[in-house]
Amino acid sequence: MLFEELGLMPRLLRAVADQGYSIPTPIQAQAIPAILDGRDVMGGAQTGTGKTAAFALPVLQILNRAGNRSRRPRCLVMAPTRELAAQVGDFMATYGKNLTLRSTVVFGGVGINPQIDKLRRGVDILVATPGRLLDHAGQGTVDLSGIEILILDEADRMLDMGFIHDIKRVLKLLPNKRQNLLFSATYSDEIKRLADKLLNNPTMIEVARRNTAAEKVDQVVHPVGLKAKRVLLAQLIKDGDWERALVFTRTKHGANRLATYLEKSGIVAAAIHGNKSQTARTRALSEFKAGKVRILVATDIAARGLDIDKLPHVVNFDLPNVAEDYVHRIGRTGRAGRSGMAVSLVSADEQKLLRPIERLLGRQIPVEIIDGFEQNQADKDEETFVDFRRSGRGSKSGGFSRSRSGGAGRGSSDKSRSQGSAHRSSQTSR
Ligand code: AMP
Questions:
Q1: Which fold has domain 3-206?
Q2: What is the pLDDT of residue 37?
Q3: Following DSSP, what letter does each residue of 261-320 receive, concatenated?
Q4: By Cβ atoms counted within 10 A, which residue in 69, 122, 157, 223 is the most buried?
Q5: How confident is the model at residue 383, as a pLDDT?
Q6: CA-based angle 162:167:169, to the nearest 5?
Q7: Identical topology for domains 3-206 and 217-428
Q8: Is 198 helix (H, G, I), strand (E, B) or coil?
Q9: Domain-by-domain residue ranges, the chain?
């Protein structure tokens, strides 16, 4: 299947070709004709599947076809985070560069006045996070009565983040007759209820089950003591000569501390999380994309939907509490046929989080001990960990039982990897 066969106009095809895409992704091949036909669509697809182009291209064509010049927005895209909204806005501009449609992005955390100016001058496509959109609606700086197409992007995330009431409030401001597109990586009951309410006889499209991205990514677990994690990470980055990596921590504070430590170790790093100003987040992201910042440390929410081309390494500095987040995290690497590596630094107290992750993946993640960071180190740290937290959590015996099994424990150094001397543990008894 070629882009030329999807019914898209030449000006959009040129923009697509300029991006270097020749073959539509599965969601694009299915969604573009359906949307051009005026159908409602329920798209089961996560970031990385090409879902943005799957809705942006046909929407641009429909709006261009209609050619009306009202000041009111005619297409509304709602997205859960500022970063995702900004990315959708960028794609609208990129794919629509040969058309004369106007698009703008509004989200919180930045001044509202420039947004008001843009809205006043008139836009065709409005990309927004729910809160700021309602601010504009509340103060009468946006008129949603001309919306012909509504898109909810990453709808499951919006519900997870508690935006359901905001979404319902926005729906009340829209005309009844409109085309609706809903994209979600998961089908919870709540998503089904929303889809039932919103969509009219939708075309259902499901691509790439949520763990297929994960299947393309090389994954490894390095057992390590809690306090030795940052030392190990710095070593992996330096020895492996990592070009760039996105590193996940569980907390904002942890992200800051780690970025500071890496900087002190001579590795250019930045942290991105919800406590940072929007300006600081945008700057960190663009410096990372430009290669000025080598390591971006992020929390799950801040990294949601980030689109970073060429991301060879993703690191779970802390394992996420929710298995699905692991899949989301590692889906940032190994995109579009590139190889990717997901590295998890797992302390003894985190071992219990691995099982649900492996269940979701449907396979086990290889375990590899890096010399100098063996379990005895972890055992010591585990005691520190227990003292420090003043809680009964974590077992003092610690021990990464899987890595020691089968007699291939510490000491053997038959296998070395590019990032340093390491040996792989036995997989047989797991
Ligand atoms: P998305 O799922 O919309 O976040 O897109 C994921 C990435 O895939 C983006 O970096 C797009 O630039 C890229 N992409 C989208 N469509 C295609 C395509 N047909 N061929 C190659 N890459 C694509």
A1: Rossmann fold (3.40.50)
A2: 97
A3: HHHHTT--EEEE-TTS-HHHHHHHHHHHHTTS-SEEEE-HHHHTT---SS--EEEESS--
A4: 223
A5: 42
A6: 115
A7: yes
A8: helix
A9: 3-206, 217-428
Which is the CATH superfamily of the domain at 217-428? P-loop containing nucleotide triphosphate hydrolases (3.40.50.300)
pLDDT, position 406: 32
Closest CA to 149 of 199, 218, 223: 199
Tell me the one-letter amino acid at 18. Answer: D
Cα 344 from chain centroid (whole Å): 17
Residue 91 CA: nearest ligand 1 atom is 12
Which of the residues in the chain have pLDDT under 50?
A: 208, 210-211, 377-378, 380-381, 383-399, 401-430
Tokens representing residue 263 in the block: 């900087």
With 0.85 as the threshold, say if the pTM is over it. Answer: no
Per-residue model confidence (pLDDT) at position 359: 77
- Is residue 180 helix, strand or coil? strand
- Nearest residue by C-alpha to atom 18 in ligand 1: 21
Q: Give residue 248's pLDDT.
A: 95
Lining ligand 1 with CB less than 6 A are 21, 23-25, 28, 47-53, 307, 309, 335-336
For residues 107 and 153, what is the distance between their CA atoms, to the nearest angstrom?
Answer: 14
Neighbours of 357 (CB within 10 A): 24
**One-letter identity of residue 416:** S
| Distance spanning both ends of the chain, measured CA to CA | 43
pLDDT digits (tens, 9 = 90+) for 321-341: 888 888 888 877 765 556 689
Predicted confidence at residue 338, as pLDDT, reads 60
Q: How far is the CA of 48 from the centre of ligand 1 (A)?
A: 6
Q: What is the pLDDT of residue 337?
A: 54
Q: Looking at residue 333, what is its pLDDT?
A: 75
